[in-house]
């Protein structure tokens, strides 16, 4: 079992976290890696955007692999999901993804993107913790 953890506390940590994530996903084939990286980066982006406490960023990112699957968990200290976001997550399907992707809103597609680009997605702590899984 391979395990690693990374903490984002400052804006400059965000870029280092993205590089670390890319390295963690190396065992995947290129198309799988691309889409799973999109999902994980979207989770990280949500943390930076929604998980701020005033101007401080905090995200705990953990990675584990057993050789059959990659699991990435990202946790923040934000206020959690809105009711609208929770509903979109529960309904996330290709139809919901297309509907939200074609809107002019700046946000609202992240959970659908994460769900579509991973093999399994689990939300905990009212959305403050997301776990994404991809089979190798």
Rg value? 14 Å
Beta-strand share of residues: 25-35%
The counted number of beta strands is: 5
- Helix fraction bin: 40-55%
Q: Tell me the major beta sheet.
A: 5 strands, antiparallel
Mean pLDDT equals 83
The helix count comes to 5
How do the strands of the widest beta sheet line up side by side?
1-2-3-5-4
Structural class: alpha+beta
From the spread of the alpha carbons, the general shape counts as: globular
Account of the 3D structure:
This protein is an alpha+beta fold and 136 residues long. It is built from five helices and five strands. The chain has helices spanning 11-24, 30-50, 83-91, 94-101, 110-116; strands spanning 2-8, 59-65, 69-76, 120-124, 129-135. It has a five-stranded antiparallel sheet with strand order 1-2-3-5-4, covered by helices on one side. A hairpin with a 4-residue loop joins β4 (120-124) and β5 (129-135). α2 runs antiparallel to α5 (110-116).
């Amino acid at each position: 079992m391979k395990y690693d953890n990374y903490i984002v506390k400052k804006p400059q940590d965000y870029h280092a976290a993205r590089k670390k994530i890319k390295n963690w996903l190396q065992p995947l084939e290129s198309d799988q890696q691309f889409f799973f990286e999109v999902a994980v980066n979207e989770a990280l982006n949500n943390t930076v955007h929604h998980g701020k406490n005033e101007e401080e960023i905090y995200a705990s990112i953990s990675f584990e692999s057993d050789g059959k699957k990659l699991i990435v968990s990202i946790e923040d200290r934000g206020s959690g999901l809105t009711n609208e976001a929770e509903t979109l997550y529960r309904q996330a399907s290709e139809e919901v993804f297309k509907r939200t992707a074609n809107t002019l809103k700046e946000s609202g597609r992240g959970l659908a993107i994460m769900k579509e680009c991973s093999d399994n997605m689990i939300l905990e702590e009212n959305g403050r913790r997301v776990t994404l899984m991809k089979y190798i």
